[in-house]
Amino acid sequence: MTFRLKIFLLFASSAIIILLIAILAVNAQFQRFSEQQVQKEFSGISSRFEYFHHIEMDNLISLAVNISDAPRLRGSLATGDRATILQAAEQTNVNYLTDLFWVIQLDGTIVAKVDAPQDSGQVMNNLPVVQDVMKGFDSGDIWLMDNMLYQVSAVSIVSGDEQQGILLIGNDFDEGISNKFIRLTGLDIAFFNEESLISTSLPDTMEAKLKNVLDGLSVNQTFQEMDMPRIPDISDDTGSTEYPVQRFSLANIPYAGSFFSVVNVNGDELATGMIFRSLLQETQLLSRIQSTLIIVGLIGFTLALLAAYLLTKQITRPVDELVNSAEKLGEGDLETAIIPRANDEIGKLAVAMDETRKSLRATREELIRNEKLSTVGRMASMIIHDFRQPMSAINGYMELMVVDSISTEKRKKFAENITRQSDRMLSMINELLDFARGEIRLSRKTVSLARFLDEITHNFDHECRRNNICIKSDLFWDGEVTIDEGRLQRAVENIIRNAVQAIKTDGNIYLTAAQENGTLRIKIKDDGPGIDPEIRENLFKPFFSHGKSEGTGLGLAVVQRVIKEHGGQITVDSKVGEGTIFTISLPLTS
């Protein structure tokens, strides 16, 4: 993994993590805010209902007082006739349409029940509201009767200063307080107990579903079985038990609701009320916000990747330039300057690297100068050393040639020796010049291969016979080749001369030429002592000389360069004690 990729992944992952945390935080914050709003909305809802309930109860008591002043109702009570009282009660209730309309005698006996006349005659003096009226003050309570909740109030029916009876009226919660509260607040309401759902503001089609939901909710309810509902005194400050806000789903719609207990004056819990509403609007808003957050997240993700890429590129560009500069330094390029892009740590590193480059360049130049001086010194030493022997020989022969007693035949022999030593010196000079120039410019011409090899073997006849060395040449392909005759001849002769010097005496040298797939292969094989593997590795290096008392050490280096300039190559195969084979491969060109 590259440094740039690591930096990119670091920035990209950091940006994405921060973006995800921000999105999750916004989403969680909105959900928390929504939850807080719901909690705040329902935190005092039961108290509001209780307050509304008290107002409605006061209104109901006031209504009962107004009804009790009706002359017809008071007159019927004066007759003492139940039929007359019932008729008057029915006619009076037509104007008010209450759900309960009872006329009760002072002894607690029901004289008339508009809602259920057949129940008249029942004694109700044990009811708290009746007892309150008997004591001289108006009262109001809640009843649970026939699985229905009622607000009831009881007042005295007075004629002059005389109390003639008790009027008790009541309204069903659904028709009275519940509907008004729903219209006022826009909330839904339901009342239920352990046995059944008493009432709800939801449509009839939803009642069964709501009952199933309520059965699954955990609500602490304590009910007491009783033959007759106990009726609380609304005027008492009993309060109500309030439960935490609960969430539930109804017909795949989320709801939230708050529970409260409905109790009578005796503290008996008659039912549990639930004020609730749909959270569909909040859910849809949350869904839209989440969709927006996803879109924003995708855009942010793309921007984060783009920013990470640009930032990574900006940061790693100087590093890449330093890496490229370091690679160039490693390849030996000490001329290209390293320019700092900024005055930061990377810029300081670039300055330090450029100073290192300058130092290396100065050191290299110093080494080159020293190497040149060393090479010149070595070459001068070799020239002096190598020329000393042939010059001494030439000087000796020259001294002998001027002696009068020397015969003409010997003088001729001495002249040949002088010529041979001069040629030897000329050959060494050519090697030195070729090496010093570093470039060999070939002068090609087309020559006969047979004549080329015959001339080479002829040049060694005398020397080989003197040392009892047999030199043979075999030509397996006869044609013409385009070569630099003089340079290639000296190259082959250099190899043969090395073979003669290695054999010293009593040996064989075989010179062969053949053509293989458009390539001319010239092999020089000898049966000399062979070449050690360690020496073989350095054969073609300049100034390398092993086991020779004369020469520049440049012979095989120049040979290799001449052959490469011809587009060919030279290889050596040698076994110690068996001999050596040099193979020259040259492409045949017209």
Detailed description of the structure:
By secondary structure, the protein is α+β, with helices and mostly antiparallel strands. It has 15 helices and 17 strands. The strands form four sheets. It has a five-stranded antiparallel beta sheet with strand order 2-1-5-4-3, with helices on both faces. It has a five-stranded antiparallel beta sheet with strand order 7-6-10-9-8, with helices on both faces. Strands 12-14-15-17-16 form a five-stranded mixed beta sheet. A hairpin with a 5-residue loop joins strand 1 and strand 2. Helix 8 (280-330) packs parallel to helix 9 (345-401). The radius of gyration is 63 Å and the shape is rod-shaped. Residues 220-242 have low confidence and may be disordered.
> Strand arrangement, largest sheet?
2-1-5-4-3
Helicity range: 40-55%
Q: Rg from C-alpha positions? A: 63 Å
Low-confidence stretches: 220-242
Class by helix and strand content?
alpha+beta
Strand count: 17
Number of helices: 15
| Inertia-based shape | rod-shaped
What is the terminal separation in angstroms?
Answer: 54 Å
Mean pLDDT: 80
Query: What is the beta-strand fraction?
Result: 15-25%
Largest sheet: 5 strands, antiparallel
